[in-house]
Amino acid sequence: MRDRTRQTDPAGSTRKPAASTRKPPETPGQPWPTGGGLTPSVVLTLQRTAGNAAVAGLIGRAPPLAGEFPHAAGNVALASPPVVQRGLIPLDAKDKPGRLRDDERTLKVLLEANGFQLVDRQKARSDGAHEADLIARLNRVLAVEAKFESSDISPAKRRKLRAQLAYEYDSLTDAAGRYRDDADADYDAALTAAAQLIRTVNPTVNELFKSGNPWKTAKPTIAFPVRFARLTDAEPYAEAVRARYKKLYKGPAVVASGLSQPDQVRLQEEKNGVTAQLQAWRNKQWNAPGCNSNGTWGTSKGGAGAGFAASHLNTRVWAELRTWWYGKEGTYITPSDTTTWSLKKYRKLSANSPLSPTFNYHIDVP
User: Cα Rg for the chain, rounded, in angstroms?
Assistant: First the structure.
């Protein structure tokens, strides 16, 4: 079976290695490095058996980034941590395979179990619309899980319920990672906007010194975004604006660069591969080669079953492919313990349909 889909959006993120992530200000979906030669499958196994606390000290952290939230208590950068997705009960379990774990019936616990630490959850829920959507998604997860309690469920119906539950569950953690990432991106954009506003009043000042009049005049005018009140406060936010101002106007100019020609070719090749596999999935039976017991079809650029051969993409190409995939209707992304990431799509089928409900395209991002 090639459909091994969980290792985590950011995000927010999500996980993410998460949402994540995992994700602005880090690159969307970029894997986090692991220490001590750990592989994703080893981390996942340890996380499933011993919990997130057991792996927290083993996973290396990425360098702090300019757009991260400064902690209100100590102005310490809070990077979005790696997200290791525990997921539903494994399909090979003896008790309740493919079901929701008994201890994951609240949004806090479910996200925490999937590697979203406190700051991740705060970011993911910092926008009211995002929080409402996550709660609605959790309710859909619980509603599907409740259907298993019926005393009259055929094997085919049980299989379809497991596939639907996996979709709702994965969609929730994917959305949480993206919402976390949105918070990072919005915070980063707010810093730049505030610095640019100060620049309009001080066009010849390239650095705002604490003791200087330009900063003393500008600081009281900085509007603190209410959305980030649970993540930082006005004082460290103002300092972050001052640092952003220096980066924008005193440091060397940042030159935006797109994909190189080889990367553009590689991106198009992968898009073609995904499109070809989507076409092949249209009439794929739930028990075709490459399908797991839920009917999820695990595939790759090389195909499924014996032809399985996942692509290896650099982080630049992956970031562009991720954006392209999210632009398609009904798509989501989960970590994969077979490779690194899974591009997924779910379709709701009639009760008697023999088709595979879930598309799962594996990609490796070293």
Answer: 22
- The length of the chain is 366
As a whole-number percent, the residues of the chain with pLDDT over 70 amount to 75
Is the per-residue pLDDT at 274 higher than 90?
yes
Q: Are 282 and 344 spatial neighbours (Cβ–Cβ below 8 Å)?
A: no
- Read off the pLDDT band of 216 (50, 70, 90): very high
Q: Torsion over CA of 86, 91, 93 and 99, rounded to 10 degrees?
A: 70
CA dihedral 318, 324, 329, 334 (to 10 degrees): 10
Cβ-based neighbour number of residue 291 at 10 Å: 24
How far, in Å, CA of 45 to CA of 7, rounded? 9
pLDDT above 50 (res 16)? no
In whole angstroms, how far apart are CA 35 and each of 16, 116, 123? 16, 19, 26
pLDDT above 80 for 306: yes
Measured CA to CA, the distance from residue 344 to residue 357 in angstroms comes to: 11
Q: What contacts 103, CB < 8 A, 6 or more positions away?
A: 109, 113
Q: Are 292 and 6 in contact (CB under 8 A)?
A: no
Look-up of token digits 């709660």 = 135
Residue 333 pairs in a beta bridge with 343
CA distances from 211 to 70, 208, 245 (A): 22, 9, 16
For the chain, how long is the longest CA-to-CA vector? 76
Is the model's pLDDT at 211 over the cut of 90? yes
Q: In 3D, which of 341, 288, 334 has the Cα closest to residue 310?
A: 341
Indicate the pTM of the whole model.
0.75
Residue reference for tokens 């603190």: 224
Nearest residue to 366 via CA among 40, 63, 85, 46? 40
pLDDT tens digits, 154-199: 999 999 999 999 999 999 999 999 999 999 999 999 999 999 999 9
What local confidence, expressed as pLDDT, does residue 337 receive?
Answer: 73
Residue 51 has pLDDT above 50, yes or no: no
- Dihedral of CA atoms 165, 168, 173, 175 in degrees, nearest 10, equals 170
Of 142, 140, 143, 137, whose CA–CA distance to 9 is shortest?
Answer: 137
Residue 82 pLDDT exceeds 60:
no
Residue corresponding to tokens 């757009």: 67
